[in-house]
Design goal:
alpha+beta; Jelly Rolls; globular; binds N-oxalylglycine; binds nickel (II) ion
Length: 331
């Protein structure tokens, strides 16, 4: 770090010797000592010819963990690298908090105190914005860094294609007709999290336990772990695979599948050594879409387990899913 960078760092909220009281969670919600062993979630290779076996592997993982990882996913390293770079640069901009007040902007930046949950601040900064329809939305994204719009829109396009592929495979695996799960089948919201190093990771969290109200979420976590997934009543830490995206089933897909695949609780922990960046692409149904168990998966023996709901109303009423869409206004 040069002197200016060091001086800037010193002013940051997270550059403290211990976790300030406002960030300390009630004991029952603290992550405590973090498990040393990282679990490898099932890894699906999308680069080879997709056989029935691969489809079954995805469905099994979605049932058992609600999560899997994909490699050879078709999103190029360059696209990922450019995107992580603009998000890192964005988080380092001193003017980031005030720069979205301009007339036509539609994005939200949250610093650590914007994410006060249960009276406790979270160890996280975040930027998020709508992405659909992309051409209109991207005009309302941050203007700085200069490469922001180009890099992030390319990322959204590529990850959107991956999302379509994944939904199509899940559709097949559930025995639904082709295209059934498409919805808008685009990335509706992109949300990038920056978790600075934390002096006492056992006391606080980056993101509290939650379900994603999406069809699927496609997360890039680079090479720094921090995602934890609830499995058989315990939190497991997901090992970081920089070549992979982590995919999780959202509540809407659980409803569509009538419970055949599961939306599983997860959270983000911090670490004392290095900053972590994660990028979550939420592939959502369109707001007016009515989400309900697919008719093909409902029978007398296997009745509908979920009430149908208009997606927009579901999201508005889902207090438990707080970290995501609530403050966003659609363009
Ligand atoms: C999310 C999320 C986890 C992470 O943004 O919904 O679960 O590792 N993020 O950042
Ligand atoms: Ni999530």
């Amino acid at each position: 770090m040069d002197n200016t960078a060091a001086a800037k760092y010193a002013l940051n909220w997270f550059n403290v010797p211990s976790v300030p009281k406002s960030y300390v969670l009630p004991e029952k919600d603290r992550p405590g000592e973090l498990p040393p062993v990282c679990h490898t979630l099932p890894v699906i290779d999308l680069g080879k010819r997709i056989e029935a076996e691969t489809v079954q592997h995805i469905i099994n993982a979605s049932r058992e963990f609600g999560f899997f990882q994909v490699i050879n996913h078709g999103v190029s390293d360059d696209v990922i690298c450019d995107t992580t770079k603009v998000f890192r640069e964005f988080c380092e901009m001193p003017e980031k908090e005030s720069s979205n007040s301009g007339g036509n902007s539609n994005w939200a930046y949250g610093n650590s105190t914007s994410f006060t949950r249960k009276g406790v601040d979270l160890w996280r900064e975040n930027i998020k914005h709508p992405c659909y329809p992309l051409k209109d939305c991207m005009q309302q994204w941050p203007e700085k860094p200069n490469e922001y719009r180009e890099a992030v829109s390319t990322y959204v396009t590529e990850v959107g294609k991956l999302g379509k592929t994944i939904l199509e495979l899940i559709c097949k695996g559930l025995g639904l007709e082709e295209g059934y799960l498409n919805g808008i089948s685009e990335v509706e919201i992109l949300s990038a999290n920056s978790y600075p190093p934390c002096p006492e990771p056992s006391l606080t969290l980056g993101v509290l336990r939650h379900h994603d109200p999406s069809l699927v979420t496609i997360l890039y976590q680079g090479n720094v772990p921090g995602l934890q997934v609830m499995k058989d009543g315990m939190w497991i830490s997901v090992g970081a695979m920089p070549d992979a995206f982590v995919v999780n089933i959202g509540t809407q897909l659980e409803m569509n599948s009538n419970g055949m695949v599961k939306s599983v609780e997860h959270r983000a922990v911090t670490n004392s050594k290095e900053a972590r960046l994660s990028i979550a692409a939420f592939i959502n149904p369109s707001p007016s879409c009515i989400v309900e168990p697919a008719q093909a998966l409902v029978s007398e023996l296997n009745p509908a387990q979920y009430k149908r709901a208009v997606y927009k109303e579901f999201v508005n009423n889902s207090g438990a899913f707080g970290p995501h869409t609530k403050t966003l206004q659609r363009a």
